[in-house]
UniProtKB/TrEMBL annotation:
PROSITE patterns: HTH_LYSR. Residues 298-319 are annotated as: Disordered. InterPro entries: LysR_HTH_N, LysR_subst-bd, WH-like_DNA-bd_sf, WH_DNA-bd_sf. Belongs to the LysR transcriptional regulatory family. This is LysR family transcriptional regulator. The keyword Transport does not apply. The chain crosses the membrane at residues 229-248. Residues 3-60 form the HTH lysR-type domain. The keyword Magnesium does not apply. Keywords: DNA-binding, Membrane, Transcription, Transcription regulation, Transmembrane, Transmembrane helix.
């Protein structure tokens, strides 16, 4: 037994018009063709749906029962089409988004607040993780996109948009001999022990910090490694060493730690927060997310300008 959506629509119009001629006109078809279609549907189902008479057509009890389901079927079919079109356009659907810890402070809230106002029918599935793990999950199709901390190694499989850039600054315990300095050259820290980003889970941050030390003329003595910025700051506060951290960190961490801008040229604008996704999975929803992030207002760098330096940053989202 096969009943088409077109036949269900014909039944609905007939129930409303109670007249084959008027119903045929509304359906843009000939009256005999409408009669044949309804008769065929009755034969397929095995019941009489319409009583035909001189005063028009009236639904039988079986027809009344089928009418309700017919309207429901048409509604769900049309809604399915709307949803499919919405997913393709990026206006409807879901987005699995990974993010690093430092995106929580400003970039992620600003993005989600704006995005949800513009696209209320898109649902987010959010998960916090390290840059390395987010990229792995994107490549494994477990995430649609991610906000990651860079620099990251270039991959032919990934499309990456830099949303904002940031400086590296020095974090020291509150009673450290450098705690009251307004700025410092990294070479003055050669004798210190460092708490550094881990080389395995945060290779980009590790290599930037290590490279900056090498440019300053020394190889740092590493006492501990960590993945999250807040963990590094906690270890600094505990006296485990000093650390190189994103400048945004000092806007959200104060207790027992002092943050000192670096005079080193290589410390400025050397970090980034980026949106990344698979090139072969660039859905319209991910494109919408990028548009929202790019349109968010810029904010001043968390570290402020380095002494004598001129500000240089591309338009970016709030951190």
């Amino acid at each position: 037994m096969t009943v088409t959506l077109r036949q269900l629509q014909q039944l609905i119009v007939l129930a409303e018009e109670r007249n084959f001629r008027r119903a045929a006109n509304r359906l843009f078809m000939a009256q005999p063709a409408l009669s044949v279609s309804i008769k065929k549907m009755e034969e397929q189902i095995g019941v009489t749906l319409l009583q035909r008479g001189a005063r028009g057509a009236a639904l039988t009890p079986a027809g009344e029962a089928m009418l309700q389901e017919a309207r429901s079927a048409i509604f769900h079919a049309e809604n399915a089409c709307r949803l499919a079109k919405g997913v393709i356009s990026g206006d409807v659907g879901s987005l699995r988004l990974g993010f690093v810890n430092s995106a929580i402070h400003e970039l992620l809230p600003a993005t989600l607040n704006t995005f949800r106002l513009q696209y209320p029918q898109i649902q987010f599935e959010l998960s916090e993780d390290s840059t390395w793990e987010i990229i792995r999950r994107i490549e494994a199709h477990e995430l649609d996109a991610g906000i990651v901390r860079g620099p990251i190694a270039q991959s032919a499989n990934l499309k990456t948009w830099v949303i904002e850039r940031d400086d590296l600054i020095l974090a020291v315990p509150e009673h450290h001999r450098y705690a009251d300095l307004e700025s410092i050259e990294l070479r003055d820290c050669e004798s210190e022990e460092f708490v550094l980003f881990g080389s395995f889970r945060t290779p980009g941050l590790h290599s930037v910090a290590l490279g900056l030390c090498h440019s300053a003329g020394f190889t740092p003595r590493i006492s501990q490694e960590a993945i999250q910025v807040q963990t590094l700051v906690g270890l600094v506060a505990s006296g485990m060493g000093i650390a190189l951290v994103p400048a945004i960190t000092r806007k959200h961490t104060r207790a027992h730690v002092r943050f000192i801008p670096l005079k080193d040229e290589g410390a400025r604008q050397c970090l980034s927060l980026s949106l990344t996704a698979r090139r072969d999975m660039l859905s319209a929803t991910v494109q919408r997310l990028h548009e929202v992030m790019s349109a968010l207002p810029s904010h001043e760098d968390a570290a402020g300008p380095a002494p004598g330096a001129q500000k240089s940053r591309q338009p970016s989202a709030a951190r």
